[in-house]
Amino acid sequence: MLFQIGGDWVSMLLWMVFLLFMIFFYPRFMVTQIMWKLEKSARSLELMSDKAKKIVIKEVTKKPDKVLKDSIDRFFEFFVISPISLDPFGIVKKFDHIIQNQKERFTYFVKQIAPRADPEKRANLEMGLAGGITLHEIAKIVRHYVELVRKTKSIQIAMILQMQMPLIERLARAMFRGTNALSKGRPIGDGLGPLVVAELAGDKKMQEVEEDILMARIRLDGRDVFILKARGPGGRIGRPGKAVEKVIKNNKIVRIITIDAAAKLEGEKTGSLAEGVGVAMGGPGVERSYIEDIVVKKNIPLDSIIVKMSQEEAIMPMRKTVKDALPKVRESIKRSLERTKRGDKVIIVGVGNTSGVGNSREDVIKVGKWIDSYEKRLKRMMGEKKKKGAEDMDME
Q: Where do the DSSP E strands lie in the chain?
């Protein structure tokens, strides 16, 4: 009986020691474990950022000197301060002014580091720099929170960051591949809108109607159609809002159709299509505002056609499922034109980044061939990766 009581006291004492250990030391153990994973992720993102920087440098010259490397290092710290919005009146013009300043700064810097590059190559370098800077910023923010957790030992911050890391890493990997594609002038998912307009243009020569925006006038289903897209094949977005505003002021437009890539929900198929109303246009909203302001005054209906893809697919090289959506987009345009009369004037805007996308049907064919080739390479790489994974499992 005494032995049994003593045994109970020993068990209770051990349990109390274990409980105190869990209370005081387990949170620190958890932080240490999480920190190990976060540090690994932070280093991976920083390595990715460095690789993106090397990709941009390699597109400038095969033999970079220290001056070039230092210049790009400095430019990767470039930032934009949003205008004050306490008084919303005039905020669009403020944003427009800042955005134009940003574009001028990028253009000036690229001319400095690549003075002999042609305009299309310079446009690609500008887009590549923009992607690389975004990836660099992601890596810096993650590093900031990792060091904050290291200093404060805060398990709450560590767990929040750990829960967000899968999404952050997913976006960073997409941005890395997007930076590579944009620097090399390859078509990306966001180029769907310009690709549609290039196909509609056929052999028609397009003229610049606004900064980096080309326009052609065609007959489509008996309608007089103004088609607009950013100038390619260099990576550009242009000022579609200003271009639409200019066309409307000089012509009696009865309908505007905007075509763009849009973020899909998980579970939706990439390349699926949806129709709606409004201006299908992302970004800060400046160009979209210009269109909305004038259509309200003129009472012009707005149709929008979107091709769904994930946010990652929009900035990565264009997939075959996105390219194959072109016939469905043409059918949707036809349905939209049916709501107008023969002879009416309509505007069709292909919204998006025109990297790798030229300005004619011949260019569309080239893009299609590149995408088909890229898709085959991607499937082969995925197959090899799966095979390697299976072999690793067998070895285990």
A: 207-210, 213-220, 223-230, 253-263, 273-277, 302-309, 345-350
Provide CATH 3.40.50 ranges for the chain.
189-376
Nearest CA to 350 among 238, 273, 253?
Answer: 238
C-alpha 360, offset from chain centre:
24
Q: CATH fold of 189-376, please?
A: Rossmann fold (3.40.50)
Q: Which residues touch 108 (CB under 8 Å, ≥6 apart)?
A: none
Encode pLDDT of 189-218 as tens digits: 999 999 999 999 988 889 999 989 999 999
Inter-residue long-range contacts of 79-86, CB under 8 Å, 24+ positions, other chains counted? none
Cross-strand partners of 253: 345
Structure tokens at 35: 């920190």
pTM value? 0.86
CA dist., res. 354 & res. 194, Å (int): 6
Q: Which residue has the tokens 């994973």?
A: 37
Please give the Cα distance from 269 to 57 (Å, whole number): 36
pLDDT digits (tens, 9 = 90+) for 83-117: 888 888 889 999 999 999 999 999 999 999 999 99
Question: Average pLDDT in the 158-183 region?
Answer: 92
Cα 32 off chain centre by: 34
